[in-house]
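Lecture 7, part 2: worked example. A protein chain together with heme C.
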Amino acid sequence: MKKTAAGLVASFLLFGILTACSSGSQAASQPNVLDDTHWQEAADLYKQHCISCHAADMSGMVGPNLQHIGSSLDRTKISAVIGNGKGGMPAFHKILKQDEIEKLAEWLASLK
Ligand code: HEC
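Predicted complex, written out as structure tokens:
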């Protein structure tokens, strides 16, 4: 009886290790746009102000997926959404400076 319990514990442990490993490698295989040094400033603003609704991988949560937003909206439209807000998205014109909004819009527009 004792042996079986130990075996069970061991297999749970092994299972835990295996799942931890597989989720780790999956994350590593996805290129993270937020680590692109060319857009560091915009990515930092995103991490501060947008990540809570649009998710760490930009796939969306409360707000929509922004991973390829540049193929549906241009820079001008994106900066309008950020500045004025839209639906459930708050307006950022009082929170961010205009040049910060432009930087975010330029970066997002480049994500095709
Ligand atoms: C409180 C949650 C929230 C935050 C914070 C937020 N958004 Fe949004 N965002 C939304 C929602 C909800 C929508 C969808 C609005 C709609 O279409 O009605 C949206 C839409 C957008 C869109 C338009 C997407 C499309 O396909 O039309 C862009 C671009 C965008 N957000 C960028 C940003 C950026 C950049 C930031 C940070 C400065 C940000 N959002 C912060 C919730 C949020």
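The pocket of heme C is lined by residues 49-50, 52-54, 62-64, 66, 69, 72-73, 78, 81-82, 86-90, 92, 104, 108 (CB under 6 Å). Residues 19 and 25 are 10 Å apart (CA to CA). Keep this in mind for problem set question 3.
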